[in-house]
Amino acid sequence: MTEITDREFKVFQDMTLKLLGIKLQEHKRTLVISRLSARLRDLKLESFSDYINYLEKSDNAGAELDKFINKITTNETYFFRETQHFDFLANKAFPSIEEKIKSGKKNSLRIWSSACSSGEEPYSIAISALEYFKGMRGVDIKILASDINTDVLKKAQTGQYRREDILKKVPKSLSDKYFQTPSEGIMQVKDEVRRLVTFKRINLLDSRYPLKNRLDIIFCRNVMIYFDESTKKHIMEMFHQNLEDSGFLVIGHSENLFAYTNLFAPMKNTVYSKVLGSRGEQK
Q1: pLDDT for position 1
Q2: 143 Cβ partners below 8 Å, 6+ apart?
Q3: What are the start and end residues of each CATH 3.40.50.150 domain in the chain?
Q4: How many angstroms separate the CA atoms of 145 and 205, rounded?
């Protein structure tokens, strides 16, 4: 395995922080070596310094930068991860939206899975929405699913997963109803689920997000722990700006928003509600 010098690792740390707002800690050094060594082999480069030079000066630098980001940002995910969040949808969020729909205040449901990885999270949300609203006609359900990693987005768009992974995490009543088997060992999310989800590449560091409407719920789970404080602040302010006044933010089990009580109020199980009024206004 190719060795990496302190200088080379520092360059990758700086690049990752600038591009993604992610702090690459020292204990990630081995992971960086492992993942980027494949790019060295593919490009027939001798060292990480050669790779840095390629990223900075090659005619193909833009495309390679996407590959660099994809190697750095691969994350674990699975269907119905952190089941308490899906209980929250069924028992709190969806009933509150149903009440507004029945009173004529709205006829839509808008949810954003902002770090969707390979698609298990937004498809789980879509299945949950279909299960809850199946008896109601005319409810316009749209789920935006985004990630910075183009490789995982391509996988997500296929809606195909290993059969053993589906059967391990998805209740049989739901896997029978919402999945099909196009080939041996593979299960695919059915079209009625897939048509609710739109996949898009979005960098959460961007100054504006490509959103047409305010959102009822934003999922941003197990991602904030990788960001530096200024990036977290930016993302929280952007989420607040793009949520409905009655909106909810769902984060990961190891995360908290203690530093952003002016923007979000804790409910339970790492679910937060939007704070209204002057305390929640953008600075």
Answers
A1: 63
A2: 110, 111, 112, 113, 122, 125, 126, 129, 196, 197, 198
A3: 83-161+189-280
A4: 16
Closest CA to 203 of 149, 249, 263: 149
- The architecture that CATH gives domain 6-72 is Orthogonal Bundle (1.10)
Active site residues: 35, 147
Classify domain 83-161+189-280 at the CATH topology level.
Rossmann fold (3.40.50)
Q: Are 11 and 23 in contact (CB under 8 A)?
A: no
Interatomic CA distance for residues 109 and 154, integer angstroms: 25
Digit-coded pLDDT (tens) for 202-245: 999 999 999 999 999 999 999 988 898 999 999 999 999 999 99
pLDDT tens digits along 101-129 = 999 989 999 999 999 999 999 999 999 99
Band of residue 138 on the pLDDT scale cut at 50, 70, 90: confident
CATH 1.10.155.10: which residues of the chain? 6-72
Sheet holding 264-266, edge to edge: 197-201, 140-147, 108-113, 215-220, 243-251, 271-274, 264-266
Outline where 73-190 has alpha helix (H).
83-88, 94-102, 120-133, 150-158, 163-169, 172-178
Asked if 264 contacts 257 with a C-beta cutoff of 8 angstroms, the reply is yes
